[in-house]
Design a protein that fits this description.
The chain has about 220 residues and is mainly α. It folds into two domains: about 90 residues, Tetratricopeptide repeat domain (Serine Threonine Protein Phosphatase 5, Tetratricopeptide repeat); about 120 residues, no CATH class. Helix content is about 55%, strand content about 0%. It is built from nine helices and no strands. α1 packs antiparallel against α2, α1 packs parallel to α3 and α6 packs parallel to α9. The longest helix is centred in the first third of the chain and has 21 residues. The protein is globular, with a radius of gyration of 20 Å. It binds zinc ion (ZN). The site of zinc ion has 6 residues, from loops.
Length: about 220
């Protein structure tokens, strides 16, 4: 009984959420769709996938792009034969991030996102202490990127290899307050990169791991 009423409540929130979206009230829709996702039992895969799909649309309308991708990624994982899967595959790149106009921008966004996340994860509350710190860290990441992208080693890499490199490469960030401008690598990027083949994701989605559970997460997700 409880499950039935939970399911019909979830369906009610979903319908209302879609209605609010259609009437250009994405913030209202967001709250309703979140509720729908929360109370849909995981066994109702079709409904859950649908609710996550519409949640991603609401997030996109509110310009919360990273969370929209996360929601869509979860929607497509649950239902392989879904519209969510089609939309997801059409809009994401090999890093599992939103496609940018060029391959180089795809690389840049993945690199910056991975480096910023690894920096912020070590900070209290995963936040910058000040705007100055934010700018300094970003500047250092971009300087490192410039050196990296122009190197011959980098140009010859496949996406999976680049991803491994982005994750292995540790920028020697200064303790904030004693900021020095010379970027240094703790390991040179001419490191051994084990050859990485395209692995199918172990969650059973059928997509490559890098585009599914191993996708590059956005900063809003940490
Ligand atoms: Zn997966």
């Amino acid at each position: 009984m409880k499950t039935t009423s939970g399911t019909s409540k979830a369906a009610f929130y979903l319908r209302k959420g879609i209605y609010e979206l259609a009437h250009h009230r994405p913030a209202k829709a967001l709250a309703l769709l979140r509720q729908s996702v929360e109370i849909t039992p995981p066994s109702c895969e079709n409904d859950l996938s649908k609710a996550l799909y519409w949640l991603s649309i609401a997030l996109l309308r509110l310009d919360q792009r990273e969370l929209a991708v996360k929601s869509l990624a979860n929607a497509q994982k649950i239902r392989r034969q879904s519209y969510a899967r089609k939309v997801y595959v059409r809009n994401i790149n090999e890093y599992g991030m939103l496609k940018r106009p060029t391959r180089e921008l795809d690389d840049l966004y993945a690199f910056v996102s991975i480096q910023l996340s690894s920096y912020l994860l070590k900070k209290p509350q995963h936040r910058f202490g000040s705007q100055a710190e934010h700018s300094a860290v970003l500047k250092l990441i971009l300087e490192t990127w410039k050196q990296l992208k122009d190197s011959d080693e980098f140009k010859s890499l496949e996406c999976g290899e680049k991803l491994l490199l982005f994750r292995k490469l540790k920028i020697d960030f200064p303790i904030f307050g004693s900021y020095s401008t010379s970027p240094r690598y703790s390991e040179r990027f001419a490191m051994n990169i084990a050859s990485v083949g395209m692995r199918t994701c172990s969650c059973g989605s059928g997509l490559p791991f890098e585009q599914c559970c191993g996708r590059v997460q956005g900063l809003s997700e940490i």
